Amino acid sequence: MISHGHGVPVKTLAIALAGLIAPISPAGFASQSQGGIEKSVLVSVAGESSVPLTDLTATDFRVREDGTTRPVLDAKLATETLFVALLVDTAKPMLGVTPPTQELRRALTTFSEILDAADADARIALFEFGGAAVKTEDFTTPAVLAKSLDRLIPDLRSGAVLFEAFVDASRSLSEKPGPRRALVCITFGAPETSTVNPKKVLSEVEKSGATAWAISVQDVEGTSSIQTGKQGVDNRSSPDREAFLNTVTQATGGLRLKALEVTALATHLKTIANALVSQYEITYTRPAGASVKKIQLELTRPGKVLMSPWIR
């Protein structure tokens, strides 16, 4: 079974979650070249700087298969259209809690501006999942999305349906051309009221070929399973949601980020935006007939390589 850029076998992740959801395995094909089989992978690079890493070359990457280093032939910035589905928790917060509407709008504006500066042809869709999963902005340019964010407001209901939003967004992305597809999810710890089975959700993500990225604001793992009082909402699905977000981000080559304060949201979204515009197609060779269980990609300079499901 093939693992992704961080080097954690997908099979291990599935076992750790006691069978909650199945692992995602990349699919692709090989082409013959002199000296062996030529393979190409799509990766995102999360650098330690506050700007995208768009000047990398083949010498900046190291590829290992089952611990054996492979020759890297080429590394070039991905030029296909980038499609991003933004999934935002707009559920009404608990009584006495002010919704982080302004902070959310500012953070998403920064996210859109980074994508616009690097690739004005990128396309972003906005899905809100407070109470119901709704696509409030179809795939449009980052500049157009930024202008529409002032319409982003909390839902009247206190439960969120993240699983439903993932299914809808995944299906929308599966129709898009090229390998550069991303699901970027933002949660604020609202009770999960979706009735969709996590296994079904993961299946839809797998079919979409997208990388998943998730930001959770608040200590969501510390919330009770049921919130009581006037806003009593069954929250038993929240542990499944956390396990799903942890697994889907690792298995598809994204990042799982957490913050206790909403002020960190802008920084986390900036990290994801920089990684999305720092996507590379890495080409390397392996011996003909080699049987590979795990692929690892690293940088020879500071930063982290995250491998997408796309391999050919």
Describe what is shown at a glance.
The protein is α/β, with parallel strands linked by helices and 312 residues long. It is built from 7 helices and 16 strands. The longest helix has 18 residues.
Which secondary structure elements does this structure contain, and how are they paired or packed?
Elements: H1 10-16, E1 31-33, E2 36-46, E3 61-65, E4 68-70, E5 72-77, E6 83-88, H2 101-118, E7 123-128, E8 134-140, H3 142-148, H4 162-174, E9 181-187, H5 198-208, E10 211-217, E11 226-227, E12 233-234, H6 238-252, E13 256-259, H7 265-276, E14 279-286, E15 295-299, E16 304-311
Helix pairs in contact: 2-3, 2-7, 4-5, 5-6
Structure description:
- With 312 residues, the chain is α/β, with parallel strands linked by helices.
- It folds into 2 domains: 10-78 and 280-311, no CATH class; 83-275, 3-Layer(aba) Sandwich (Rossmann fold).
- Helix content is 27%, strand content 29%.
- The chain has 7 helices and 16 strands.
- Helix 5 (198-208) runs parallel beside helix 6.
Helix content: 25-40%
Strand content of the residues, in percent? 25-35%
Helix-strand topology string: HEEEEEEHEEHHEHEEEHEHEEE
Distance between the termini: 16 Å
Oligomer: single chain
